Amino acid sequence: MEALLAGDTALVTGGANGIGRAIAQAIAGEGARVVLADTNAEGGEATAAALRAEGRDATFIPSDLSQPGAAAALFEAARAVLGGRLSILVHSASPRRLETDTALDLSPEAWHRMVAVNLEAGFTLGQLAGRHMRDTAAGGPRGRLLFVTSLHAETPRNLPHYSASKAGLTMLMKELARALG
């Protein structure tokens, strides 16, 4: 029986550990070629190596999506590794956070980093991947955009930067779906 995602190519942000790693493992396990990206180079390389040891096609690209231009550079690097084709984008990256800062206590730096990774990188990657999938699909549009969000998008819990960026990411996905649908 053919694997569900045989012939697909995927970029998974936040792929070094946690949810991103599990998604990368599942996608690769279904036959897709996978590029993982993360700031955690040791974890990302270990994940890619473990997938290759299982006979999967996996590459790690270090990327700090909080930096200006990093999302676009990652998209192009992933496409190059994947032979110019990307059919799955999973945006799972998110900075570490603690439920300790209220909206009155959070530093502007923490706010900007979280919004840059979760929302701004999501916008850039979603727009680039959406255009790419629309323009390169033979026989009509084909591709999958997945954004990992959170219940915190609906319920505040002393994570104002995380909650706001995940709520924005949820609406961004709806806007991308509308534009691509």
Folded structure, characterized:
The protein has helices at residues 18-29, 41-53, 70-81, 108-136, 160-180, and strands at residues 9-13, 33-38, 58-62, 88-91, 144-147. Helices cover 48% and strands 13% of the residues. The radius of gyration is 16 Å and the shape is globular. With 181 residues, it is an alpha/beta fold. The longest helix has 29 residues, at 108-136. Helix 3 packs parallel to helix 4 and helix 4 runs parallel beside helix 5. The protein is built from five helices and five strands; from the N terminus they run βαβαβαβαβα. It has a five-stranded parallel beta sheet with strand order 3-2-1-4-5, sandwiched between helices.
Descriptive terms for the model:
alpha/beta, 5 strands, 5 helices, single chain, 181 residues
Number of helices: 5
Helix share, percent? 40-55%
Cα shape: globular
Provide the residue-averaged pLDDT.
93
What Rg, in angstroms, do the CA atoms define?
Answer: 16 Å
List the helices and strands and how they pair.
Layout lengths: L8 E5 L4 H12 L3 E6 L2 H13 L4 E5 L7 H12 L6 E4 L16 H29 L7 E4 L12 H21 L1
Parallel strand pairs: 1-2, 1-4, 2-3, 4-5
Helix pairs in contact: 3-4, 4-5
Question: In a nutshell, what does this entry contain?
Answer:
With 181 residues, this protein is of the alpha/beta class. The chain is 48% helix and 13% strand.
